[in-house]
Amino acid sequence: VRMVNNAVQPELAMAWGSANQTLLQRIYTRGIQASFWLALCAAIVLVVIVSPLLNIWTGGKVVMDDLLFYFLLVSALEYSAWSTGITLLQATNLHFKESIWYAVISAITIPLAILLLHFTGRLAYAGFVLLLMNISMCFIAIGPANSLANVGMVRVFYGIFDVYSVLRMIRGKLNV
To answer: Along the 176 residues of the chain, how does pLDDT read in single tens digits?
Structure first.
């Protein structure tokens, strides 16, 4: 997901700098689309291979905490939801407020994860706290980014689930 965002960030900055709102919208929505589908495909592959792979890798000596694993997978999907938004804000140098919020949320969630781990002994709850952090960042980053790109959530969701354009993107036939 970071790879997609690193690739689109200079393009977003160029579209913003040249005041090309149409191009900015298209790059932004395609970045969200690519990030989401990449994360979803990776999550599906991991669900299928992680248990046998871990067993082979560790000789069966490490048992996976399934709840932690699923919290981390869903958290990664949540990250894919807000990361392109923060990338757009970074590309336009309008990310200061969201960066402060990220630091504040991190400062709250890290001690919360430590406390939950200490009192429950379940590492999975640290994964749950990470999920909460990523959900919080969705609320913090997506709204300002969508506003900057002048796109609504309906258009973003439509873009994510427009399977035809996803298939065209995979084939390399999608013009931004």
So the answer is: 999 999 999 999 999 999 999 999 999 999 999 999 999 999 999 999 999 999 999 998 988 899 999 999 999 999 998 999 999 999 999 999 999 999 999 999 999 999 999 999 999 999 999 999 999 999 999 999 999 999 988 878 777 778 777 777 777 765 55
How far apart are the C-alpha atoms of 94 and 98, rounded to whole Å? 9
pTM of the model: 0.84
21-58 vs 2-17: helix axis angle to the nearest 10? 170
